[in-house]
UniProtKB/TrEMBL annotation:
Name assigned to this protein: Methylthioribose-1-phosphate isomerase
EC number per UniProt: 5.3.1.23
Pfam families on file: IF-2B
Source organism of this protein record: Azospirillum ramasamyi
PANTHER family attached to this UniProt entry: METHYLTHIORIBOSE-1-PHOSPHATE ISOMERASE
Length: 367
């Protein structure tokens, strides 16, 4: 995607033994590039959410393995790299998927060939992510176009399609294009009139900080709203469809995404608003069937809830506390939306029902 006319990915090789990333913890107020040179720096970038979003976490982990092998290409070095990176974030399945793929590619090779092969495999994972998301965008744009046609046939001629999203599942959460926002970008490029309701997404405010920043720079009409506004908008007919991302999806269609997604799905179900999930296939965990019972839910530092960071009127970036001193804080990072609340899964191979049969219809090799 483009920032002030310059095309960027979220992660890219930047010279021998260097991988560049966009530091997402400093957005939207400061666009900064960080250069990673080691396993430890990559693990920190994932854990501290300089990079975030399931697909990007996977790509970053792959590059992290390549950096680690420059220091130690032995079997022990490979296993240490994979174990260190796997421990950074427990919920997003792309992390495990990317590390398993890297291990499978590199373990059979002699040490002398591993660094070059690791760099090539990490680049392939990144390139494949871009194409997967581009395809998700095209399939999802057809849903937005259909919504526009329905509005044109009714009393809403000329009104934009209103899409509600939660958290950030745009290009900042992937290598490029995004998952939930890929259909928005594709539809926008096709000239379909649309508008995005952007949930602020507490805690961490990935919607207000990242999704809004992306859409603004790409010129997509949008409005930031508090997390609790979505149900009100749906009750008053101001949301035509919801599209969210996912960090892990079960073989039966349960969807694990940023905390608060489940509540949006309940509101959508109650108001007859279609609720779609942008789903790159590496985020499908074919080994589990019950998302509520089987997906580990990351619990993060309570300061993400008790503190807020922003820009002051005179331009300083400051962090302030918003809770009373001594009040306990719980900070669950994700929740699970049961498949029964999901209208459809938008994958790189097409749109399917959120069921085992629906997924197997697009991915029969998993049967």
């Amino acid at each position: 995607m483009r920032i002030d006319g310059t095309a960027y990915r979220t992660i890219w090789p930047d010279g021998e033994g260097v991988v560049a990333i966009i530091d997402q913890t400093r957005l939207p107020h400061d666009f900064a590039i960080v250069r990673l040179t080691s396993l430890e720096e990559t693990a920190h970038a994932i854990r501290a959410m300089l990079v975030r979003g399931a697909p990007l976490i996977g790509a970053a982990a792959a590059y992290g393995v390549a950096l680690a092998l420059r220091a130690d290409a032995s079997d022990r070095g490979l296993e240490r790299a994979c174990a260190t990176l796997l421990a950074t974030r427990p919920t997003a399945v792309n992390l495990r998927w990317a590390l398993d793929r890297m291990r499978g590619r590199l373990a059979p090779l002699p040490e002398s060939q591993r660094v070059e092969a690791a760099e090539a495999e990490a680049a392939a994972i990144a390139d494949e992510d871009v194409e997967i998301n581009r395809s998700i965008g095209l399939h999802g744009a057809a849903l937005i176009r259909a919504a526009a046609e329905r509005k044109a046939q009714g009393k809403s001629l000329g009104e934009p399609v209103n899409v509600l999203t939660h958290c950030n599942a745009g290009w900042l959460a992937t290598v490029d294009w995004g998952t939930a926002l890929a259909p928005v970008y594709a539809a926008f490029e096709q000239g379909i009139p649309l508008h995005v309701w952007v949930d602020e997404t507490r805690p961490r405010n990935q919607g207000a900080s990242l999704t809004a920043w992306e859409l603004k720079h790409h010129g997509v009409p949008h409005t930031v709203i508090a997390d609790n506004v979505g149900g009100h908008l749906m009750q008053h007919g101001k949301v035509d469809l919801c599209i969210v991302g996912t960090d892990r999806t079960t073989a039966t269609g349960d969807v694990c995404n940023k905390i608060g997604t489940y509540l949006k799905a309940l509101a959508a179900h109650d108001n007859g608003v279609p609720f779609y999930v942008g789903l790159p296939s590496p985020t499908i965990d074919w080994t589990i069937a019950d998302g509520v019972r089987e997906i580990p839910i990351e619990e993060r530092d309570g300061r993400e809830v008790s503190e807020l960071t922003g820009r002051t009127a005179d331009g300083r970036i400051e962090t302030v506390r918003v809770t009373p001193d001594g009040s306990p804080v719980a900070n669950y990072g994700f929740d699970v939306t049961p498949a029964r609340l999901v209208t459809g899964l938008i994958t790189e191979r097409g749109v399917c029902p959120a069921t085992r049969d629906g997924l197997l219809g697009l991915f029969p090799e998993r049967g």
